[in-house]
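Database export, one record per block. Field names are fixed; values are copied verbatim from the stored entry.
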Amino acid sequence: MSTREASRPADDAGPDTPSRDDAPVSRPSKPRRYKVDFDQAFIDPDVRKVVRRLARHGHEAYLVGG
């Protein structure tokens, strides 16, 4: 038996152990959206061009940063 096999949980965990199928399903929440007004002079012209092009061709485009 390899180390990898030894570290795996056993498939027959027992009758009292809940299976993954019994776990509650959590649904992802939608991200919060904030309306923000800012001067476009602070955004690189190439970035503005890419975002406009994506939106023009039917894609959702988001400008994010940190």
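Remark 1: The chain has two helices and no strands.
Remark 2: The CA atoms of residues 11 and 21 lie 14 Å apart.
End of record.
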